[in-house]
Design brief:
Layout (H helix, E strand, L loop, with lengths): L3 H22 L25 E3 L6 E10 L3 E26 L4 E25 L5 E12 L2 E8 L3 E2 L2
Antiparallel strand pairs: 1-2, 2-3, 3-4, 3-5, 5-6, 5-7
Keywords: Signal
């Protein structure tokens, strides 16, 4: 007989598995007969990096990216944090589209910054074409005195609808 704790663990594991599979699926893009968006290319390889913590830096601490499909545009929300207040903290956002074989930059990059703080949170809206897979390439950085530190992070993949 399976006890209640084991059933609870199984349900929790199943819920986590469903969430991970959903995240890795990326979405679906041109519309199929059932109203879902039909992809125009093969899907890109799976890659999940929703949050990053950095070691070995004097100031740079961590970052995150969230991407939301808004039908014709993508909202890319970024967060960059440092261990203490720095002169400049920022994030440079570059939208990328998957061609079916490689990721290419789309449009120009956009930079968001804050001064004399340890935290930046902001967003960028980018225009997208339905049916293509997109991701954000974000360079998180801090500058304090003569110290410049940066890391590149990629968002999850989203199929534009």
């Amino acid at each position: 007989m399976v006890n209640m704790a084991t059933k609870g663990l199984r349900k929790s594991f199943l819920l986590i598995l469903v969430v991970l599979v959903t995240l890795m699926a990326g979405g679906q893009a041109v519309f199929a007969d059932n109203g879902e968006t039909k992809p125009l290319t093969a899907p890109p390889p799976d890659m999940i990096q929703p949050l990053a913590l950095y070691t070995g830096y004097t100031y740079l601490l961590g970052s995150s990216i969230a991407v939301q499909d808004n039908t014709g545009s993508m909202r890319i929300s970024v967060t960059t944090s440092s261990k203490s207040s720095v002169t400049t903290i920022g994030a440079t956002v570059q939208l990328q589209r998957y061609t079916g074989t490689a990721w290419i930059d789309v449009g120009s990059s956009t930079t968001r910054t804050a001064s004399n703080t340890s935290y930046l949170t902001d967003y960028v809206d980018k225009v997208v074409s339905t049916g293509y897979y997109y991701r954000a390439k974000v360079t998180h950085y801090v500058t304090h005195g003569s110290v410049n530190e940066s890391e590149i992070e990629y968002s999850v993949t989203v199929l534009a609808s």
